[in-house]
Write a structure and sequence with these properties.
The chain is of the alpha/beta class. It has 10 helices and 11 strands. It has 2 domains: 5-52; 65-270, Alpha-Beta Complex (2-enoyl-CoA Hydratase, Chain A, domain 1).
Length: 295
């Protein structure tokens, strides 16, 4: 019977058989192990926070090997671009300044290159969609093609940009050796015709929260799973609306925020990220026009 096994007499005899101090040593060891576990977790959280802060603030280009099928995940740095021996410098119509870290760390700017071409480079931030609309509405602009070079940024603004691109019936281009990462492919998806130059990096990853000046730190805000899921669903809806296979976002959701899943030429084709003839003759690039206003 269970009752007889737990009878007071049997339990007392068991306790007396244990050498003095053993119980205390076991309890102390357990508490010590728990304390070590808590310290390890705290250290891990601090380390991850440090890695996140370093990743968000880094502006030096990073040398990375070219992605190939089956080996397409690379570190994501939101304020710089990947470099390597097989990568050149992208040519951005109408823009003759630096196209790497200095440009990537700044809010997105818009340069009218003439000939119906507008170049967009830099981070997508709150308010970028409004600046884009102002650039499109500038007298005499008549924009037909948007060339993008961006590490991404605000998902909400990227979605607004994408819809504005489609509303204005613009084409989108990521130039050869260009960079379109994180939320940038959402903007790119808005193009009626979408083209990617050779060795362009177009990559996606999970939606994540960032610390913004004047706002509570993202780690301290109540950013629930349901909010992240709702944003991801909105991204999938946008892709479907623009004619891109929503399966693209499955690759995004499988890729951690600190990484980037870089699409191969086959991915770009199979997922309809680019439209037919995307690897045809390169788009004629207008000559830079000194003194052109920049948005």
């Amino acid at each position: 019977m269970i009752e007889s096994d737990l009878a007071p007499g049997r339990f007392e005899r068991l306790m007396r058989s244990i050498p003095d101090g053993t119980v205390l040593r076991v309890v102390f060891s357990g508490l010590f192990a728990m304390a070590i576990g808590v310290l390890v977790l705290d250290y891990r959280d601090l380390a991850l926070a440090g890695m996140s802060d370093e990743r968000l603030s880094r502006t030096e280009p990073m040398t990375l090997p070219r992605p190939v099928p089956g080996d397409q995940v690379r570190p994501y740095l939101p304020r710089t671009i990947p470099v390597g021996p097989d990568r050149g410098e992208p040519v951005l119509p109408g823009f003759d300044g630096p196209v790497d870290s200095a440009a990537m760390a700044e809010p997105m700017r818009f340069v009218d290159a003439g000939g119906g071409v507008l170049t967009a480079l830099g981070r997508i931030e709150p308010g970028t969609a409004e600046a884009f609309e102002q650039a499109l509405d500038r007298p005499g602009a008549a924009i037909r093609t948007l060339v993008v070079h961006s590490p991404g940024g605000s998902v909400e603004d990227a979605i607004a940009l994408s819809r504005l691109v489609r509303e204005r019936r613009l084409d989108t281009v990521v130039p050869a050796d260009g960079y379109c990462a994180s939320a940038c492919p959402l903007l790119f998806a808005g193009g009626l015709q979408r083209r990617a130059g050779s060795n362009a990096w177009i990559g996606v990853h999970q939606v994540y929260a960032v610390d913004l000046p004047g706002a509570a730190p993202a780690r301290d805000r109540d950013r629930s799973i349901s909010q992240i899921q709702a944003t991801s669903a909105e991204c999938q809806e946008l892709l479907a609306e623009m004619g891109v296979d929503p399966a693209l976002w499955i690759k995004a959701m499988k890729t951690a925020p600190e990484d980037l899943y870089v699409l191969t030429e086959s991915d770009l084709t199979d997922l309809d990220v680019v439209t037919p003839e995307r690897f045809g003759p390169p788009m004629p690039m207008p000559m830079p026009m000194p003194g052109k206003p920049q948005a």
